[in-house]
Design brief:
about 220 residues; 8 helices; 4 strands; about 45% helix
Length: about 220
């Protein structure tokens, strides 16, 4: 109910960003999602095998996140943590500042999970979210409901665009960014700079960052 209330209020206070109405951006998302899902299908088999050897359980992990204007959706990833990791979250120290959660040496992350995160392979299933339209290839970091419930009015501006698999945070620090206000400013900068050409430049930069394994843990 809280998210629905904020959704209605913020849709009036903060009109949706022009990127959400772009047909070209959506076409790029669909094309990218199809290519990404093909890669995901190829990678899924070896990931499933090594995951079962390392920590038996589901290969996929899902979590409720907040998308455009705070609308909840279910995000998908390759599982990088032990089963029922969410129930153990209270045992891990949050090393971030503000309404985000980060821990450099999170004990819940499996050995295979560390590799998946370092190479960003864990995020491949999110191409399904892009194909469905809940996410975009490029956008903002999708927050969890327990983060959003604490948002101040100006924080909601970052949800005027669709969340993305990549974005400003991905090419400018990734997991090394531990201050929520810094992420907010990056997301707002993205909205100000947005264009199709800028999206493409961020995608190309992301490829370089991922191949270099920079800032991921």
């Amino acid at each position: 109910m809280i998210l629905n209330y904020h959704d209605s209020v913020n849709s009036r206070l903060h009109p949706l960003h022009s990127s959400t109405q772009s047909t070209i951006k959506r076409c790029i998302d669909i094309l990218g999602a199809i290519v990404g899902l093909i890669i995901t299908g190829i990678v899924a088999i070896p990931v499933a095998i090594v995951t079962q050897f390392d920590d038996p359980g589901p290969i996929l992990y899902s979590q409720i996140r907040c998308g455009l204007n705070g609308k909840p959706f279910r995000i998908w990833k390759f599982r990088s943590m032990v089963v029922n990791a969410d129930k153990l979250k209270h045992l891990v120290k949050n090393e971030a500042k503000g309404y985000i959660f980060k821990s450099v040496d999170d004990p819940r992350i499996t050995r295979v999970g560390k590799f998946l995160r370092r190479t960003s392979l864990d995020e491949l299933p999110q191409f399904w979210n892009v194909l469905l339209g809940d996410m975009s290839l490029v956008g903002t970091r999708p927050p969890t409901p327990d983060e959003v419930i604490n948002y101040k009015p100006y924080h909601w501006q970052r949800l005027q665009v669709k969340p993305g698999i990549t974005g400003e945070w991905q090419v400018n620090g990734r997991s090394n960014i531990k201050d929520f206000e810094t992420i907010v400013q990056m997301d707002l900068d993205y909205q100000r700079k947005w264009s199709i050409a800028y999206d493409i430049s961020l995608i190309l930069k992301t490829i370089g960052v991922v191949l270099g394994k920079k800032g991921a843990y």
